[in-house]
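Consider the following input, taken from an annotated entry for Fluoride-specific ion channel FluC (Thiothrix subterranea).
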Amino acid sequence: MWKTFLAIAIGAALGAWLRWLLGLKLNTLLPHLAVGTLTANLLGAYIIGLAIAFFSSTNLSPEWKLLIITGFCGSLTTFSTFSAEVMSLFQNGRVVWAAGVISAHIAGSLLMTLAGMFTWQWFKFH
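Applying the prediction step yields:
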């Protein structure tokens, strides 16, 4: 059980650190779009797509899956920050920006997960 807790904790610490760094470096690039949050969500979606495909074809210990998917991707991606940023846009009357941010996060994350899965399949067969 301790290996499980440790795997999740290590992954979560690394994912949270990367999310913080992305926000620090990228969130000020555009006035109405938190680029760091979007990057964290899209990167996390891509990594989880890779991980899903990779772990379905390997016999690694379950702790690796917990470290990457539950720990790292779970703390890298952020639905709560995304929600707060969208609500702020709505409250400031920036409805079109809010709709664009919603679309970018949701559609982008789904497409990046799919891209991650396809990437693993491509590497697997080449």
